[in-house]
From TrEMBL:
InterPro entries: Lipocalin-like (IPR024311). Keywords: Signal. It comes from Maribacter ulvicola. This is Lipocalin-like. Residues 1-22 form the signal peptide. Residues 40-127 form the Lipocalin-like domain. Pfam families: Lipocalin_3 (PF12702). Gene3D superfamilies: 2.40.128.280.
Amino acid sequence: MTKKISKFLLIALIALSACKEAKNSIQKEKVEKPVTLINEKLLIGSWLDQSESKLHFSLFKDGTASSDNMATLLYKKWKLDGTKLILTAKSIGNGNSSTDDETYQIKTLTEEKMVLQNGNYLLEFVKKKQNQDRTNSINTDYAVLTVTKVEPGKDGYTATLKNDFGDLYTTVISIPNLEKEYKELKVGEKVKIIGDYGNGTPIPIKAKKILIIKE
């Protein structure tokens, strides 16, 4: 009888130990894999590098990017991958050029401040304050596109555009949709299309307003 009790007790202890190990494993996994959500909208805007290098850049709503004061490192695109900011940059120097992706871990992101980590280095940025004027807001949110083709259509036309990186965009410009905001675009003009950007090739734009850039 004593042997049977000891046997059952041993089995119970083993089962209890296994449950504790499983629970500890789950808790450890939760600690090691924290869930962090990044508000992508906070990334859009012009960022001022707080280091002596002053490597300022702007991130636009349509996924394009620009270097604000760098002649040899030209940012072209950006995307968010979890908590990582990936910048596509074209490096120019000594007659040669190359395009590479730079990956940064987002450590801090607010409406006014951003801290990025690249290896052992922490890079601190402050968002440039924009005038409340709507035109200045538009300048921050949307990249400049060049009109490459205009095809007549019902009550308007279809425009094909491209950015400085060669990506193509398409939008239907019609009087019923834009009303007072309707504009006739010409090939070669530089514009900003304010609206909703979709996915695809070329990238579709549901235009709400057209801003022609005067050179």
